Each structure stands twice: as structure tokens, then as C-alpha cells.
Amino acid sequence: MGMINTPDTGLDGKAMIAAAEQALADIATVRSEVSKVIFGQEKVVENTLLAILSGGHALLVGVPGLAKTKLVTTLGSALGLDANRIQFTPDLMPSDILGTEVMDQDEHGRRSFRFVKGPVFAQLLMADEINRASPRTQSALLQSMQEYHITVAGQRYDLPQPFHVLATQNPLEQEGTYPLPEAQLDRFLLQVDVDYPELAAERQILLETTGLSDAKASAVLDAGRLIEIQRLIRQMPVSEKVVDAILTLVRSARPGQGHAETDKHVAWGPGPRAGQALMLTVRARALYEGRLAPSIDDVHALAEPVLEHRMALTFAARAEGMTVRDVIAALVRQAKA
């Protein structure tokens, strides 16, 4: 079985396995720390963590009150990251995110501009209810998410390392929301759908969160260690079989590729970023589950969070009550057959 490796990084096989095993242990500790605060929602925790471990941003979608904000705060604590939160509102301005120039005057009366950094200068940025802000403000996040720096008054400012945006979005049927543009959605490595908790988890929430003290997560990693794990993930070998499965899945979701069902239901499909997202997240998922190499199962498990926000249905498909999730599930079933 052919292996596709990333360029030589100086790690031999033994060192690679030792580093991976250490990363497995660290990730397991993060998981157990998060589970002290967030009950149930294993899939949500997993996918959000996978986005961060893969070096990307995640969009958490669900109705208010499902502990999306709490999850992000908890992850920030467990990963030892410096976190900021911005509550997006219709009157939020780009300068409220990026920062602003203020005029200073020294003792000789000389005036000069000084840049005051906005909340975007954090390692973990929580963009709460991102679709409640105007498109202009939403796009202020675009450059930072893609290029890891911002430009204000012609001056470039680099963002901290690592830099991750975890945004939450309310379902679009709710009042006062502006849908995110496709270009901005594509910047999110994964879309994580947050559903109502299972009965057992909801019982635990009622019992554990209505007393005098709330559980808090302690720092298990720090920014430096997280960057090491992110680098390691990029060095993990991916077999030809898994690469083929990624290409087959992504291409089958695009209209005009000879796939009758897709042509009928999909208006536009995922671009190459979807394949890149899968190449990273399948490795992260293998480590998350205690394995040293990704499998085709990882590709199928991540199909929904990677593809869901990168495709749109035709009007006819929507009129029939179909969802993007239905289409992806059908593509995965077909791939497994």
C-alpha cells in the first residue's frame, strides 16, 4: 500500500511513533478535562477539538442555550490558550473586532497615532452569534481567518500563534440574522451541528449546574504544545487508499461530474478546500481515537462536518424538503457500498 508523506521533517519512524503516542496521551487528557464541564455532546466536543488540532476554525450551529459558548470557554481553558469573546450584534463595527487608531499627544504637544489592538488579538477567538452582525463586520474577520494578520490604516499587524476562530451561529430561521457569505463559510474547516442533549446528559446538566459551584476545566496543554501537536498531525502519513476516498467523496458532491443524484439535487459543490480539510482532519481524528494512521472510516465520519457548509441544494431539492445532510449521507452510503 503506497504512502503519501509530507516533506521530510527529520523525524524517523521511531521518533514519529513516540511523538504520536505522547500526543495521544495529551489529547486524551484534554478530552477528560472537557468532560468534567460539558456533559454528553461527545460528537460536538470531538469535531470542535479536531478543527483546533488540525489548525483550523470551526462554526458551531445550533439554537441558543445549548452550551456552545461554554464549550468554547472550556476548550480555551483546557488547551491553555489566551481567549477573547466578541458578541456579534447588528451595530458591531469592524474596528470593534480589529482595533482602532487613537491620537496621542506627548509633553511637547506633538501628535501621533497609536494602534489599540482589538479582541481579534487572541489565540482563541469566540465569535458569538456571528450571523447577527452586518456583512461588512463579518468580512472584517475574513482576512484574519485566512491570512493570520490584519491591516489597519495601511499597517500590517500579525495575530498571535496559534490563532483559531470558533464562531457560533443561530439557525437562519431566527429573527435578525444575516446569512454568512459562501466565501466566509469556506474559511471554516468544519461546521459542527449542536443538537439538544440526550436525556441522561440533560439530567446530569440539571443536577451539576444548579448548585453553588460550577465545574471548571484546568489547563492541560499550552499554546506551544498545541502547535507541536498540530505540526505532528501534518507529518502523519496518509495512505493512497485514504487519499482516493477523499477525492472520490469530494468530487461526487459536485454537480457536473457524472453523478446523477448530485446533478439533480446540488446547486454548487465543495471546492478543493474541502479535500484539504479532510486531509488534515482524518489524521487528527485518528490521533483523537488513539490510532497512528487515518482510515477510510475517518473520511466517511468527517464527510458531514467538512462538506455541509461547502455546498448548496437546488431549489427543487429544497422544495422536496431535502437537506444537505441527506445528500451527504447518501454519498457516504454509496461510497461504502
Structure characteristics:
337 residues; alpha/beta; Rossmann fold; Helicase, Ruva Protein, domain 3; 2 domains; 5-stranded parallel sheet; two-stranded antiparallel ribbon; 14 helices; 13 strands; 47% helix; disordered N terminus; MoxR-like ATPase; P-loop_NTPase; hydrolase
Task: Note down, in words, how this protein is organized.
The protein is α/β, with parallel strands linked by helices. The chain has 2 domains: 7-235, 3-Layer(aba) Sandwich (Rossmann fold); 238-337, Magnesium chelatase subunit I, C-Terminal domain (Helicase, Ruva Protein, domain 3), CATH 1.10.8. The chain has 14 helices and 13 strands. The strands form 5 sheets. It has a 5-stranded parallel sheet. A hairpin with a 5-residue loop joins strand 4 and strand 5. The longest helix is centred in the first third of the chain and has 23 residues, at 13-35. The protein is globular and about 75 Å long. 37% of the residues are buried. It comes from Rhizobium paknamense.
Determine the number of helices (DSSP H or I, runs of at least 4 residues). Answer: 14
Number of domains: 2
> Major beta sheet, specifics?
5 strands, parallel
Mean pLDDT: 86
Class of the largest domain, according to the CATH hierarchy?
Answer: Alpha Beta
In the CATH hierarchy, the architecture of the largest domain is: 3-Layer(aba) Sandwich
CATH topology name of the largest domain, in short, is Rossmann fold
Coarse structural class? alpha/beta
What fraction of the residues are assigned to beta strands by DSSP?
15-25%
Q: What characteristic shape results from the CA principal axes?
A: globular
Count of distinct strands: 13
Spans of at least 5 consecutive residues with low confidence: 1-9
Q: CATH homologous superfamily of the largest domain? A: P-loop containing nucleotide triphosphate hydrolases
Gyration radius (Cα, Å) is 21 Å
Strand order across the biggest sheet?
Answer: 3-6-9-2-10
Order of H and E elements: EHHEHEHEEEHEEEHEHHEHHEHHEHH
